[in-house]
Amino acid sequence: MIRRAVLAVCLLLVTACSVPTAPGGATGSGDGSSMVLADGFEPESLHPLLGYGTEGASKIFDGLVAHDAQRTLQPVLAAKLPERAPDALTWTVPLRAGVTFHDGSTFDADDVVATYRALLDPAYASSIRSDFTTIARVEKIDAQTVRFTTTRPDAAFLHRLTLGIVPAESVATPAPAADSPFGTAPVGTGPYRLGEWRKGRSMRLVANDGYFGGAPAVKEITVVFAVDDNTRAQRLSSGEFDGTVLPPALAATFQGSEYTVLDHPSADYRTITLPTAHPVTGDPAVRLALNFAVDRQGMIDALFAGKGAPASTPIPEVLTEYAEPAAQFRFDRAEAERILDAAGWLRGPDGTRARGGVPARFTLMYAATDSIRRDFAQAFTSDARAVGVDVALEGLGWEAIEPRMGADALVLGGGSPFDPDIVSYPLLHSSYAGDGFNNPASYVNPAVDAALDKAREAVDPAARVAAVKEWQRAYAAAPGFVFLAFLDHSYLVRDRWDGYQQAVDPHSHGTTWGPWWNVEDWTPRP
User: Fold this and answer.
1) Quick check: 10 pLDDT over 60?
2) What does the alpha-carbon distance between residue 60 and residue 192 come to, in Å, rounded to a whole number?
3) Cβ 15 vs Cβ 67: under 8 Å
4) In the beta sheet, which residues pair with residue 86?
């Protein structure tokens, strides 16, 4: 069976809801043909045009390609990996024959063309359209072949083809995707179809026995939504679930239980945004000083049982060839103090610095229901205050956070282990300034822009590595964020199935990546 990522819940926004009850109040079937998982997050929509499964994180949809456990691209709806023309601007994609959607309709080139044209058409108001700006057009060559043309060479182009393909008829009428019933009644080609979605409570997936990669042995998966970490842990202890995700320290308390504790490395960073429009966080000296002021390893050790790695840029350790050692910030409180003193931010009687009558003070927002972001916010605040910068914390819902991202700092998460362009370009390039979560603090650095563009357009692999390292050095000289850590993800799994393969998680995890990324390949133990 094709191994592709991942389960049905793309982790986007925290859902505010009462604590749900698992269907039947029990785990899956004793013969292993079904399982019940718990997740702290629930999608708002199952529409690929609204970000559901963009990195292949879906069991309902397939992309043209997907990543395997080694992060290598494999063809899925493509018959083989797409081929790039000598001009580096066109890509030809042969399609797999004999594939059908869940409703029995035949998959072909019309569906691929319709999906990507809807993605690029402003009339559909796709929330991820800005991530595909290099695509100029997509054309049908014949029923089993499509061709993409890009506006310029795009070294990460193949990684953009993990987007789930929808039936052409579902996007036949130009209208905002958010208004489409498809978001709650999706039809894909994936190994599972949506059986039932009880919003705020649970989602049930049913195996697609006609799946071209082979019928899944796990016939039914129920995902129960429970926001609170401690609630999920308590219900897991009572045996309600076959697995869940928990913060590392909490997961460790299950060592020796009937559950196996699995720690996955990830590219999932937490960073502090520093809005350029703010009189304090917009000062380059404050930004640089705060990067020296934070004890990244101390946070990881104290808060997350050592499960993680320090972060200074969005490039994770797993992208070894691209990581630039010279762009890493050390913990040096004295250097932070020196930078602030030199920039005229001087301590007052209360210990808080000020310059020109402006106190070194700003607000840091975090998602109130996310215990990990809360812990990082508190640790960052302590380190900032140690060098004379006062930070006021606000735990809020996302509906309150989003309108303020241009003015107030935020604990932001993201990250991809697949390619350095996928997250870094929209996060740091000035063309994305103020574009939602892409570059929320409006960071602008011409040297970083130039190197990001060079890296995106590089055809030669060595030249691309050099350009990625170049933008990291330029960024470290004038940072716009305070990257804190790449988190390990900790999971609890009932030892009832074979087929587990460890993978490196992107930011999306929970019951998406992690142990269940290839659950369609799992088999019950006798």
Assistant:
1) no
2) 5
3) no
4) none
Residues 6+ apart with CB under 8 A from 469: 322, 324, 327
Beta-carbon-side half-sphere exposure of residue 206 (alpha carbons within 13 Å)? 10
What sign does the dihedral 427-432-433-438 (CA atoms) show?
Answer: negative
**Confidence at residue 3, expressed as pLDDT on a 0 to 100 scale:** 36
Helix (H) or strand (E) holding 395: strand 390-396
Which pair of tokens denotes residue 39?
């997740």
- Are 76 and 66 a contacting pair, CB within 8 Å? yes
Q: What pLDDT shows up at residue 11?
A: 32
Cβ-count burial 475-490 (b if 16+ within 10 Å, e if not): bbeebbbbbbbbbbbb
- Tell me the helix, strand and coil percentages in the chain, rounded to 5: 30, 25, 45
User: How far apart, in Å, do the first and last CA atoms of the chain sit?
Assistant: 20
**Cα–Cα distance between 63 and 74 in angstroms, integer?**
10
Token reading at 332: 């040096």
Helix (H/G/I), strand (E/B), else coil: 121:
coil
What integer is the mean pLDDT of 419-446?
97
Strand partners, 92: 83, 147
- Which DSSP state fits 56? S
| pTM of the full structure | 0.91
Q: Which amino acid is at 437?
A: F
For residue 242, CA distances in Å to 36, 215, 377, 450 come to: 5, 21, 32, 48
Pairwise CA distance, residues 59 & 191, whole Å: 6
Answer whether 103's CB lies under 8 Å from 190's CB: no
pLDDT at 20 over 50: no
Question: SS3 of 476, please?
Answer: helix
Residue 309 parent element (H or E): strand 308-310
Biggest CA pair distance of the chain: 75
Tally of CB atoms within 10 A around 96: 20
Q: How is residue 75 written in tokens?
A: 């063809």
Query: Is the distance from CB of 326 to CB of 497 less than 8 angstroms?
Result: no
Are 290 and 336 in contact, with CB atoms under 8 Å apart?
yes
How high is the pLDDT of residue 27? Answer: 66
Mean pLDDT of 113-131: 97
Question: ∠112-116-117 over CA atoms, to 5°?
Answer: 110
Alpha helices, DSSP H, located in 91-151: 109-120
252 sits in which H/E element: helix 248-252
Dig out the tokens for 158 from the structure: 């193949």
Residue 15 has pLDDT above 90, yes or no: no
What is the number of other CB atoms lying within 10 angstroms of the CB of residue 24? 10
